[in-house]
Write a structure and sequence with these properties.
alpha/beta; 11 helices; 13 strands; globular
């Protein structure tokens, strides 16, 4: 397979490797252990997703539904809290962080979400607690000090409109938490959201007085729309006019990898779109998500003959390099060591 022709060059001074939920290919996601591996393996930036507890504490989980990422189902004292809720228009059944106090959440232990694919990670089930955003920041600060290098933090505010609707808005708490830690008053921070209104609100709050904090507009597949704005689609937001509008409040976009190089009918990489070039023209960096090292997630070009769940390091590095050729400025990966290898040419 030949690498697609470059459509742009990075506008960032350095292409950054972002540890997606830490090093979630190697440890259960969003645990301090996952962040430790990501930092050890060379991540420039690590990502916590943020949701709220019943008592208004920001905790690090991919979703507010925690049945798939904790052992809550094995706690009989919480059995009655299993319920069905509609979050961003989708009915979900399980256990939700907003129904637990922090003290109650701390009795739970993390477990591997993708157990069928990442069987090795299940060996760590039950070992780690759910960290708060404060704890995660303190951990990264300690690691940065010990390693004498700056490690960025790229928090995602999950389901902003939903949490605001139940009386647990997160935006001001995120800013207050960042301001409360010496590390995040100066270290690189980039706040992400798939919604639009909260990023515009944050831009207004931040102004020019927090130069270390940037904003990233995340994007789903083109036909989808932000939860807080059904009048538009992500496809419209990816147009030149849409990107120009985003540049008025954000510093970067975070599309899926396949919005940059889509897959053809055969599952192989097709020609790159103009998204990276168009975003750069608007003054926006491009930080796509998510590179994963197992055959199951790779384009057909890069899979090997092993099983779907097999870790394929060479294939993952080759796929990342195909996307680097389009001029992306940073990227999310579940395996920062492979991301580091792709960027550094090792």
């Amino acid at each position: 397979m030949s690498t697609p022709a470059a459509t742009a060059t990075p506008i960032a001074s350095k292409v950054l490797v972002i540890g997606h939920r830490g090093a979630s290919a190697l440890r259960p996601e969003h645990t301090l252990a996952s962040y430790a591996v990501a930092i050890e393996d060379g991540a420039d930036v690590v990502e916590p997703d943020l949701v709220s507890t019943k008592d208004g504490v920001l905790v690090v989980r991919h979703e507010n539904e925690i049945g798939g990422t904790t052992d809550v189902a094995s706690h009989p004292e919480f059995a009655a809290r299993r319920t069905t809720k509609t979050v961003d228009g989708v009915a979900i059944t399980g256990w939700f962080t907003e129904d637990f106090t922090l003290a109650e959440l701390k009795t739970l232990r993390a477990r591997e979400r993708l157990a069928d694919i990442r069987k090795a990670n299940t060996a760590f089930d039950g070992q780690f607690s759910v960290p708060t955003f404060d704890e995660m920041i303190e951990f990264v600060a300690a690691e940065a000090s010990a390693r004498r290098r700056i490690i960025g933090i790229i928090p995602e505010i999950k389901h902003s409109t939903y949490f605001r609707g139940i009386g647990l808005p997160m935006e001001d708490k995120v800013l207050a938490t960042l301001a409360a830690h010496a590390y995040t008053r100066t270290a690189p921070v980039e706040i992400q959201s798939f919604e639009v209104g909260n990023l515009k609100y944050l831009r207004g709050k931040l102004g020019a007085s927090h130069p270390n904090i940037r904003l990233l507009q995340l994007m789903e597949a083109g036909a989808e729309h932000p939860a807080d704005d059904p009048s538009t689609t992500y496809a419209a937001m990816m147009s030149p006019a849409g990107l120009k509008a985003i540049a008025a409040y954000a510093d970067a976009i975070g599309p899926s990898t396949r919005s940059i190089i889509p897959l053809g009918a055969d599952g192989r990489l097709a020609a790159p779109t103009t998204l990276v070039r168009d975003a750069h023209t608007a003054g926006l960096e491009v930080h796509p998500y998510t590179f994963r090292p197992e055959n199951h997630f790779l384009a057909a070009d890069f899979r090997n003959a092993a099983s779907d769940a097999t870790r394929n390091e060479a294939g993952s590095v080759a796929e990342i390099r195909a996307y680097l050729a389009t001029g992306i400025d940073a990227f999310f990966t579940d395996d920062p060591a492979l991301g580091r290898r792709a960027v550094d040419g090792r």
